[in-house]
Design a protein that fits this description.
Number of strands: 11
Order of helices and strands: HEHEEHEHHEHEHEEEEE
CATH architecture: 3-Layer(aba) Sandwich
Shape: globular
Helix content: 25-40%
CATH superfamily: P-loop containing nucleotide triphosphate hydrolases
Number of helices: 7
CATH class: Alpha Beta
Structural class: alpha/beta
CATH topology: Rossmann fold
């Protein structure tokens, strides 16, 4: 008798969970119909159409960097989105970036000169480094109720057990209730179930060369930053990858149409490369008694 009762209880709990999710989706659709759940268009037609008008401004959006080497691109993309969110406000605002200590040790911390190069004013950024995940979640949940913030960035490392579906759901609901964008910046993490409305995979892309006023590329220069953005989770089931270019001066995205020309790199050293080791002893042999020359006396 215990097994059927347990199965019935599990089924009932599952039905309640599904009902809550459906109710949340219905509420989101109602807000969109009323125009109360605005979106953040990036100005790229293919990208915005795939996301039904752009990223959701009220709720959780995940930005995933597959590897640690991609974290710089993901951070730059998150700051570019935060810049667009700041410009949509009717009043000045701030951006709160929350990152555990391990995220800074692995991928580095925000740098004022780098922020300026991205078109982001360093004075508009507040950076918090809590020691534990519990503290980071508490700061994030509290900050979502502060009207002075235009956006909140929560940076985590990998796929921690202390941040799962339940935690993401709570933050998503809090951000949606506060009508504030929350960007989950996941460095070197795998895809996993979450309550994020949209999940984007962010990877670096080769920048084009700078252009002279007459439109001729300047050889050896580095142009605007580019991002390879893949939509991994959205209402549109078809995956889409676009190459976006960020204009820090005009503070807008555009579709990168030309690729950086590839050049054959010259070797740093002109000497002949060493051959690969094969069929050799694994350690130095014992020195023998053979000498190169006979004794003089």
């Amino acid at each position: 008798m215990a097994q059927p009762a347990l199965a019935k209880g599990t089924l009932c709990a599952l039905r309640q969970t599904i009902a809550r999710i459906e109710a949340g989706q219905s509420h989101t659709e109602t807000l969109e119909a009323r125009g109360e759940n605005p979106r953040l268009p990036l100005g790229v037609e293919a990208f915005d159409e795939a996301l039904s008008g752009g990223l959701m401004l009220s709720g959780l959006n995940e930005l995933r960097a597959p590897f640690t080497t991609d974290c710089g691109a993901a951070s730059g993309f998150a700051l570019a989105l935060s810049t667009l969110a700041l410009e949509r406000r009717d009043m000045p605002g701030l951006v709160l970036w929350i990152g555990e200590a391990i995220t800074g040790r692995e991928a580095g911390y925000p740098h004022a000169a780098g922020l300026l190069n991205l078109g982001f004013e360093p004075a508009n950024l507040i950076y918090a480094t809590p020691r534990k995940m519990e503290d980071a979640l508490w700061i994030c949940e509290t900050a979502l109720e502060v009207s002075a913030f235009a956006a909140v960035i929560l940076e985590i490392r990998g796929n921690p057990a202390r941040f799962g579906l339940a935690e993401s759901r709570r933050l998503h609901l809090r951000a949606r209730a506060s009508r504030m964008p929350l960007f989950l910046l996941r460095q070197a993490g795998e895809e996993e179930a979450s309550s994020a409305h949209t999940r984007l995979r962010i990877e670096p892309a080769a920048a084009a060369e700078r252009l002279r006023p007459d439109g001729v590329p300047m050889s050896g220069t580095i142009g605007r930053p580019r991002f390879a953005v893949t939509i991994e989770k959205s209402r549109n089931p078809a995956p889409l990858t676009v190459l976006l270019e960020w204009n820090a001066h005009e503070r807008q995205f555009s579709l990168a149409r030309t690729a950086r020309p590839s050049r054959a790199l010259e070797p740093a050293l002109s000497r002949t490369p060493l051959s690969a080791s094969a069929e050799r002893p694994d350690r130095a042999q014992t020195v023998g008694s053979i000498v190169a020359f006979e004794r003089a006396s």
